[in-house]
Amino acid sequence: xxxxxxxxxxxxxxxxxxxxxxxxxxxxxxxxxxxxxxxxxxxxxxxxxxxxxxxxxxxxxxxxxxxxxxxxxxxxxxxxxxxxxxxxxxxxxxxxxxxxxxxxxxxxxxxxxxxxxxxxxxxxxxxxxxxxxxxxxxxxxxxxxxxxxxxxxxxxxxxxxxxxxxxxxxxxxxxxxxxxxxxxxxxxxxxxxxxxxxxxxxxxxxxxxxxxxxxxxxxxxxxxxxxxxxxxxxxxxxxxxxxxxxxxxxxxxxxxxxx
Length: 259
What we know:
The protein is of the alpha/beta class and about 260 residues long. Helices cover about 35% and strands about 25% of the residues.
């Protein structure tokens, strides 16, 4: 059995880490480089940085931030937001990131997944999926719909069908973020996370809803997800990464023992 991973997500806006609920009401809470360095020292397995306004502002991702992070952390980290083409992917990887995350771009131009995987290896390409529950129908047999543009635009794609498509296109990982659970701290959306993790053979990251360590234990033992992503529960000092890992380990979750 592969070790499960704890991943911390830092949404970045104007060079500050920001957090909201269901993609709304964001407030700034800290410096991304300092926070990333602290989480790295605490023993988190990976970091994810999303430049959440780059796409809306029509600008590339902040490469200076990526370089600063790369100089301070010594664990894998991925970067998303403002990725427009494979050259942007190349720039992010050359700046020091191990992986590039694409979300809305992948929906609009799916070939970017294949191009990125062919050029840099599929292990470098993470596809983020923001999903919302809409009920089972002919159009959405899973009952979940894909949403892009930071939760603002629903698209006519069933979540499980899209997951299977991105795997076929060459994605190395899928990060499933539930808009319904995002920032609520009431637990991950186990249903759609489990459905996607069962449908694909590549690693699935659960995102959206983590509030207490038990939520991570639940999603990593009750579904086939290989990693869980947290934000609020560590950003606000409610828990440290070692505390989360200790509790998960005590409930039988197999983790890297380096914290």
